[in-house]
Structure formats: structure tokens, C-alpha cells
Design a protein that fits this description.
alpha/beta; about 450 residues; single chain
Length: about 450
């Protein structure tokens, strides 16, 4: 099939590349000439494991191309995916749909013959209705079926998520779109990926409901972690104990500094606004948003407490800046709140991240960037592990301690075991764990 993807950002590029890898003829469209020029040279503007290789192999095979010219690309397409950004609107938290509607007008003017127009962007309930209305207003003769097909991609694992999805949600009000969308995703039938066909409004809500539920799960275990610290329990054991229940599951039960990224913060806020618009408040989601915001700010206070209550004039090292590993995305990253909180109390901050420092330089001030984890530790009064990149999981603890001025580590991802850190002479603080958990008692007894 001939497929046009409007928007070559994270979602659009991953979608286009994977569909091309399925054998479809895909053209990715974007107004940013520098981005398209870079992609034509095989330079991918975002970090996502495996993405560069797929871009280059599919361009070489002639299945994938890039352009800034929308009309000709759309006119030839059987399916047009709209994959532009829907950031939180300044001032009120609603999803900003201006990009979606602007692209819709351009697509309406360019379509030729029967075309399925798919909103891949995360959009509020009823957006598909407005997209359909705009197309009919701009081009009354357009023969178009508007479909909702939300994405469920995890940054850092997006290619695998696209090719081995838990489900593919397709919302439509025109039955002609069923056959077309089935053909788009036919290569996934070998993986027995379930295609869930539903109406458009239900499809739009599924995406928000899924992200809000996962955000609530993260926030829940973070609050349990606070209770564990107060009560002398171990949140990792609590999480394992409840996660073994099949009704709950173990995923997203890892206590930490709060969620961030491009999806959960804006989508939970947008769902709150959607509930208000329909007169059906989302109270649990409202609380989730509030608790998560407070938690990210509270992490700097946790670091300060681990440093004896005062960090003025001290050097604090930050390991990991991105909101999660295997991405260069700094949007709403907990590290940003932690750094600001420490700087407000007079600390000097030095940081390292394997992929996020380029973006971080544009988002934080007065931070010194190191070239490694050990560079961060050099002369530091404390080191804070914020993002659990694999290279931070097996650091040479002796080398780390020798580099530091004061051997204090605050582990906001519970990567290390308390007994191991004590054995290496560190003052150690983590999330939701007592000084001696089960693993510690076993290890200490063996020693």
C-alpha cells in the first residue's frame, strides 16, 4: 500500500519506518527542511535503539522516502497518517490541536480518490469528528474515511512495541476503513496481534485511559514507598508481593522519583480537562497529577536530607538526566526538578547522561557536564542516581568512592543493595527501603 505519514517526529518516524519495513511504500512528510534533509542523508534526529538502522535499510530498499511537499505525497496515498504533536496548551492544560487541524486542512485539499485519514496523534474525544468536519468543509467532494489509531509506543522500545504490539486499536465510523486498516497491519497477523475495531470516540479515549492508568500505578507505588520508609518496610518486596497477583501484575510497580516524558504528564492533564469538559471529573487522575508533581520536587529535599540537611556550597553529582533510559527525551524529566531544587539551596551540580546532555544543556543553567559517571563523582559531596541507564547498574564502587569528596549516594531507582553500598563505605539512601531488607539480612548473615 502507499502510505503518507504527516509529521516526522518520534511517533511519525517510528510508524513510517516500521510500516516500510513491513513492505509498504511509505513517504514521511515534515515542514522542517533541516530534519528532512538530515533524514535523507540517513541522520536520525532522535535517539531510539535500532531506528537508524531501519531508516537506512528501508531507504536503500526504496520503500521509505522523505519530503517537505505534502500535496503530491498525499494525493498518491491510500492511507494518510496524521502524526503531529499535541502538546499541553499553554495556560489551561488542554491538548493543543492546532497542528492536527492545520494538517487536516492541507490533507483535505490534497486527497485524491478514496483515502483513509488516520489520526495517530494522541487527541481528545471528539477530535475525529472535527477532523471529518474540516475535511468536508474544505473539500466537499473528498471521499475520505477518518480513523482513530492511537499509538502505544514506549520510548526506548518503540520498534519492538510497534512490531509486537499488545493490541492495535482502530476506531472508525465508516466500514470501508476496516479492510484498508486490516491490510495496513496484515504483516502483524503472524504475531497474532489483536486488532480491536471500535468506534472513533472510544478509540480516542482508550489511549488516554491507558496512559492515565499506568501513571496512577506508578504514583501508587511511589506513595507506598513513602509509607514503607515511615513504617520500616521494603517497597520492592511489597511490589513483588502484590505484582505476583495476576489481577495487578508487576509492571509499573517500580518506586522512583516520579513519572515524566512526553506522554504521561500531558495525557493525564488532558484527561482531567476532558473530564471537566464533559462534566465527569476524573478525581483519581487529578490526584495522580498533583502527587506526581509534588514528588518530583520532593526528591531534591530527599537528597538534601541525605547530605545532612544542607547542600550550600556542596557539589552534587547527577547520574542520568532523561526521564527514562534508552532515550534522549528530557521532557518533564524528574532530573529537572531535582537540579532546580538543589540549586535553589545553593548546591553546585555536575551531571552526566549517555544521551540526554545535548537537550539538557538547553533546559538547565549553571550545570557542569561530565564525560562519565566517574567524572560526575570527582570531588562530589554526594552522587544521585536519577535515571537507571544500564551503564550505571554495575559501576566500580571502589573507584566511585575514591573519586568522591564525601562517599554519599542517593539511589532514586533502587539499583544497588544497601549492604553492598555500606561494605564499600558509602552513606546510602534509596526509595522506600529500610536499612536491612530480606536480601540484606541474608547477605550480611553470609558475611
Amino acid at each position: 500500500m502507499k502510505i503518507a505519514i504527516v509529521g516526522s517526529g518520534y511517533v511519525g518516524l517510528v510508524t513510517g519506518v516500521c510500516l516500510a519495513d513491513f513492505g509498504h511504500e511509505v513517504i514521511c512528510i515534515d515542514k522542517e527542511q533541516t530534519k528532512i534533509a538530515a533524514l535523507e542523508q540517513g541522520i536520525v534526529p532522535i535517539y531510539e535503539p535500532g531506528l537508524s538502522e531501519l531508516v537506512n535499510s528501508n531507504v536503500a530498499a526504496g520503500r521509505l522516502s522523505f519530503t517537505t511537499i505534502l500535496p503530491s505525497a498525499v494525493a498518491k496515498a491510500d492511507v494518510v497518517f496524521i502524526a503531529v504533536g499535541t502538546p499541553s496548551r499553554r495556560g489551561d492544560g488542554h491538548a493543543d490541536l492546532s497542528y492536527v487541524y492545520a494538517v487536516t486542512r492541507e490533507v483535505a485539499e490534497a486527497v485524491s480518490g478514496f483515502t483513509v485519514v488516520v489520526t495517530k496523534s494522541t487527541v481528545p474525544v471528539g477530535t475525529g469528528d472535527e477532523v471529518s468536519r474540516i475535511i468536508k468543509t474544505v473539500n466537499p467532494d473528498a471521499d475520505v474515511a477518518v480513523v482513530s489509531n492511537p499509538e502505544f509506543l514506549r520510548e526506548g522500545a518503540a520498534i519492538d512495541d510497534f512490531k509486537r504490539p499488545d493490541r492495535i486499536v482502530i476506531g472508525m465510523d465508516d466500514e470501508r476503513a476496516r479492510e484498508v486498516m486490516t491490510e495496513v497491519y496484515r504483516p502483524l497477523s503472524l504475531n497474532q496481534a489483536p486488532l480491536l475495531f471500535t468506534d472513533r470516540r472510544t478509540s480516542e479515549l482508550i489511549k488516554y485511559a491507558a496512559n492515565a492508568f499506568l501513571a496512577m500505578k506508578i504514583t501508587f507505588i511511589n506513595e507506598v514507598a513513602d509509607l514503607c520508609e515511615a513504617a520500616g518496610a521494603n517497597v520492592q518486596e511489597v511490589a513483588r508481593g502484590i505484582g505476583l497477583d495476576g489481577r495487578i501484575g508487576s509492571k509499573f510497580l517500580h518506586a522512583g522519583p516520579g513519572y515524566g516524558g512526553s506522554c504521561f504528564p500531558k495525557d493525564t492533564t488532558a484527561l482531567v480537562k476532558i473530564g471537566q469538559d464533559f462534566g465527569s471529573p476524573m478525581r483519581l487522575v487529578e490526584t495522580t497529577v498533583s502527587v506526581n508533581d509534588q514528588r518530583k520536587r520532593a526528591m531534591s529535599r530527599k537528597v538534601i536530607a541525605a547530605c545532612g540537611g544542607d547542600v550550600r556550597g556542596k557539589t552534587i553529582g547527577i547520574l542520568g538526566l532523561t526521564f527514562k533510559p534508552n532515550t534522549d527525551d528530557m521532557r518533564e524529566a524528574p532530573s529537572l526538578d531535582i537540579i532546580r531544587g538543589l540549586q535553589d539551596r545553593g548546591a553546585q551540580v555536575v551531571a552526566f547522561d549517555p544521551q540526554g546532555m545535548k537537550a539538557a544543556r538547553e533546559m538547565v543553567e549553571n550545570v557542569r557536564f561530565a564525560d562519565s559517571a566517574y567524572g560526575v563523582a570527582e570531588g562530589a559531596d554526594a552522587v544521585v542516581l536519577v535515571t537507571e541507564w544500564n551503564e550505571f547498574r554495575s559501576l566500580d564502587l571502589g573507584r566511585l568512592r575514591a573519586a568522591m569528596k564525601t562517599p554519599a549516594v542517593v539511589d532514586l531507582r533502587n539499583v544497588y543493595r544497601p549492604h553492598e553500598m555500606r561494605r564499600h563505605g558509602f552513606t546510602y539512601a534509596s526509595i522506600g527501603r529500610t536499612d536491612f531488607g530480606v536480601d540484606d539480612r541474608i547477605s550480611d548473615a553470609a558475611e
